[in-house]
Amino acid sequence: MKLLLTIFSLCWGVLIYAQNVNIPDANFKNALLAHGYNILGYNINIIDTNGDGEIQVSEAQTYSGIINVNSRNITSLIGIEAFTSLTELHCYSNQLSSLDLGSNTALEKLYCSDNQLGNLSLVGNTALYLLDCSNNQLSNLELSHNTALVSLYCSNNLLDSLDLSNNLVLYTLICGNNLFSDLDLSSNTLLYILDCTNNQLGYLDVSNNAALAVFNCSNNQLSSLNVGNNIALGELRCNNNSLNSLDLSNNANLYWLICTDNQLVSLNVKNGTNSQLVVFDARNNPNLSCIEVDDSTYSTNHWTNVDAIASFSTACPVLSTRAVQENLEAVEVFPNPTTKNIWVDLGKKYNNIRLQLRNAMGQLVMTKNYTGMEEVNIDLEGASGLYFLSLETEEGIASIKVVKE
Fold it and tell me: Where would I find the Secretion system C-terminal sorting domain in this sequence (predicted)?
């Protein structure tokens, strides 16, 4: 009886050792069989080590290298679960619609872009630190178990939310061309590269991301952007938003700025290191007439990608399209913009009125005094551009931005 049990155990062990992995996709199986190469008698990434035209379970379990099956017209990776020691998988540019790698617990890198993935399960992949799943059809991406994740590329999907609260060591996030209206990055304090272009973001808080150095938030719906805490910021692309002001005075490492196609009326790049700013483009901001800089002569000579109305100054006046008042009743200016004259409606008569007009460089253009007036007509004789009108009466002051076309 003992002998029979021993023989049975040996046979069962041989059967398990010789069991083949079920790989129903012929293209995937052929790619695995042809995988690797032999150099001087050494097998490099060869999976079918015995050359029998099958992948045994033992061959799959002992294989710990990289599997590369890119661009093989594969529709299913069933069988990949047998490769429990696999550390890196390249399967991009196939026709995969679903991928479950929960059994591949040693996996560290996954490249599965350019497929048709609607489902991607990575629950068991706690060692994963690089994921490229871009150019798919993912509407959900669960990453709460992937706490080692350092680099995430998930652009060109259908994602409208992304929970990164457990991904505390995330360094690179490329998530453009999705459907995000909100993106919470408060837990990702090590984030260094962020590209969230072409989404629907109306608000984005990067105040906790002090390490952020490369930032692209272009083509969104941002009306404000605060990068005051991002002291490492070197490259900023925030074009094609709805920004009306941008303060970069705290970003001394900035070397690249593209803020075109916004609604900027205020841009401050006076950070003490303007000479290292090699790319500067602020075009298509029709209301941006004064850009605050370190040295207006240097900026004028080196930064030409600005609108005709724009000029550089070391001290731009406070910009407002409405009156800024101190105890002075509402003041209206019309027409504004104007081609020549403006009317200033003070709202009531004042005994003493002092008027000063300055150009965008802060130079005094006109000073006038009036008595007992409610409306004042001013002839803007100077060149086209932005002017700043200061009014002072016995009840207070007002500052008004005036545009001459």
Answer: 333-399
* Cα 90 to Cα 69: distance, rounded to the nearest angstrom: 6
Q: Which residues contact 220 (CB under 8 A, 6 or more apart)?
A: 196, 197, 198, 199, 200, 201, 202, 204, 240, 241
Q: Identify whether the C-beta of residue 100 lies closer than 8 Å to the C-beta of residue 122.
A: no
Tell which phi-psi region holds residue 133, choosing left (phi > 0), alpha (psi between -120 and 50) or beta.
alpha
Let me know: does 138 contact 157? Beta carbons within 8 Å: yes
Residues 6+ apart with CB under 8 A from 250: 227, 228, 229, 231, 271
Give residues with Cβ within 8 angstroms of 326, minimum separation 6.
Answer: 396, 397, 398
Q: What is the pLDDT of residue 361?
A: 59
Element spanning 301, H or E: helix 296-302
Q: Mean pLDDT per segment of 10 residues, for the chain of length 405 residues?
A: 44 56 97 85 86 96 95 98 98 98 97 98 97 99 98 98 98 98 97 98 94 98 93 98 93 98 94 97 92 95 93 74 45 80 80 76 76 83 78 70 79
Going by C-alpha positions, the residue among 356, 332, 330 that lies closest to residue 344 is 332
β-pairing, 324-326 vs 396-404, is antiparallel
- The Cα-based distances of 316 to 283, 291, 355 in angstroms read 18, 7, 19
CA R_g for the chain: 32
Asked if 338 and 383 touch (Cβ cutoff 8 Å), the reply is: no
Tokens found for residue 64: 């710990």
Q: Is 363 exposed, middle or buried (CB count within 10 Å of its CB: 0-12, 13-18, 19+)?
A: exposed
Q: Tell me, what's the pLDDT at 360? A: 64
β-strand partners of 377? 343
Alpha helices for 19-107 (secondary structure H) = 26-33, 57-62
